[in-house]
C-alpha cells in the first residue's frame, strides 16, 4: 500500500437539538467549539466542530444537529463507539463529574491495559473515555468545569461494527495503510503508524446484530488524515484503481475531503490536515460567529434566519456552577 494515514482526522455524527448538543460537549465534556458553520450540502442545519484549542486533526468530533431528527439505530455497518483519550487515573474524576451532570455511566472496565468508561450523549451516541497506560502528550483545552489535569486530549479510537471482519480488515490495511495490532475475542484492533491514542480503530464482529440506521445518535462518517492535497489526490487515484467507489475531491473550507464506504458499510473519509480552522477567524475567536464558505455567503441572511439561535459561552470557555 503506497499511502498510509497517520491517524484519525475527525468523526462526524448526527445530533438532535443543537443547543442541547452544544451544552453537552462544551459544558459537560469540556471541549472547545472551534467552528460554527453549516452543512455545506444542506445549509439548513449547523455543522458544529468540537476539539482542542485550535481544532487539530485527531481531536475533532463534529455534528450535524437537526432539532427534529428521528433517532437512529446502532448496529452493523457503522462506527458504533467514539472514544476520547484522557489521562491515566482521571476516570474516577470523570465518573463523578458525569454523574453530577446527570449522565448515566458504566463502571470502569479494563481491556488491553487500558481503562475505559462508557456513556451516551443526550441523543444516544455511544461514547467512551479511555486512559492509555503510556499517556497522551497532546495538550488539552482547559476549562473551569473540566481542568486540564483531567481534560480530554483528543480522539482515542473508533469502533466499527461489522457482520464479518475480513473485507473490512482488507480495506483498513490495504486502503488506509493500517496494521493489525491485537485481537480480543471478536474485537480486532488496527493501528496507524506506531498506534496509540488518535491512531487506532477497533473492528467489532457481531454477525447477529441488526443493521444500523444513520440518524440522530449515530455516527455519519469517520475521517482519516492525509498530510496534503497532492497526497490525497494520488490516494484517490490509487483507491479508484482498486475498484473503490470514491467521490470527487470536495472543498470543506478547512480541509479537502474524499469519501468512500468500506465493505462493511461504514462511510469513511480521507481529509487533509490543512488549511485548518484559523483561515477565517483568529485563534482566540474560534467558534464564536457563524462562518460560511464563499459560495454560501450571498445567502447568509436566509441561512441565518432558518437556523435556531445558539446560546454559547461568550469566550467559548464555559463557566457555570454545579
Automatic annotation (TrEMBL):
Matches recorded under Pfam families: Glyoxalase
- In terms of superkingdom, the source organism counts as Bacteria
Q: What is this protein called?
A: Diguanylate cyclase
Name the Gene3D superfamilies on file.
2,3-Dihydroxybiphenyl 1,2-Dioxygenase, domain 1
Amino acid at each position: 500500500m503506497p499511502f498510509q494515514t497517520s491517524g484519525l482526522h475527525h468523526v462526524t455524527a448526527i445530533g438532535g437539538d443543537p443547543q442541547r448538543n452544544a451544552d453537552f460537549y462544551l459544558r459537560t465534556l469540556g471541549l472547545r467549539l472551534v467552528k460554527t458553520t453549516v452543512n455545506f450540502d444542506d445549509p439548513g442545519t449547523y455543522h458544529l466542530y468540537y476539539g482542542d484549542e485550535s481544532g487539530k486533526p485527531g481531536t475533532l468530533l463534529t455534528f450535524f444537529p437537526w432539532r427534529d431528527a428521528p433517532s437512529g439505530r446502532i448496529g452493523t455497518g457503522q462506527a458504533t463507539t467514539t472514544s476520547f483519550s484522557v489521562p491515566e487515573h482521571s476516570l474516577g474524576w470523570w465518573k463523578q463529574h458525569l454523574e453530577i451532570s446527570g449522565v448515566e455511566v458504566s463502571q470502569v472496565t479494563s481491556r488491553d491495559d487500558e481503562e475505559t468508561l462508557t456513556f451516551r450523549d443526550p441523543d444516544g451516541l455511544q461514547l467512551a473515555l479511555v486512559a492509555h497506560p503510556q499517556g497522551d502528550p497532546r495538550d488539552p483545552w482547559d476549562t473551569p468545569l473540566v481542568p486540564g489535569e483531567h481534560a480530554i486530549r483528543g480522539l482515542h479510537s473508533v469502533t466499527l461494527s461489522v457482520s464479518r471482519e475480513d473485507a473490512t480488515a482488507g480495506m483498513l490495511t490495504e486502503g488506509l495503510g493500517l496494521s493489525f495490532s491485537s485481537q480480543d475475542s471478536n474485537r480486532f484492533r488496527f493501528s496507524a503508524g506506531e498506534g496509540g491514542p488518535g491512531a487506532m480503530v477497533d473492528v467489532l464482529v457481531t454477525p447477529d446484530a441488526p443493521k444500523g440506521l444513520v440518524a440522530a445518535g449515530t455516527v455519519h462518517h469517520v475521517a482519516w488524515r492525509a498530510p496534503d492535497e497532492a497526497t490525497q489526490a494520488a490516494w484517490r487515484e490509487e483507491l479508484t484503481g482498486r475498484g473503490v467507489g470514491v467521490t470527487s475531491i470536495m472543498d470543506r473550507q478547512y480541509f479537502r475531503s474524499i469519501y468512500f464506504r468500506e465493505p462493511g458499510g461504514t462511510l469513511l473519509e480521507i481529509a487533509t490536515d490543512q488549511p485548518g480552522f484559523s483561515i477565517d477567524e483568529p485563534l482566540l475567536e474560534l467558534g464564536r460567529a457563524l462562518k460560511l464558505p464563499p459560495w454560501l455567503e450571498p445567502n447568509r441572511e436566509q441561512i441565518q434566519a432558518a437556523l435556531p439561535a445558539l446560546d454559547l459561552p461568550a469566550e467559548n470557555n464555559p463557566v457555570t456552577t454545579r
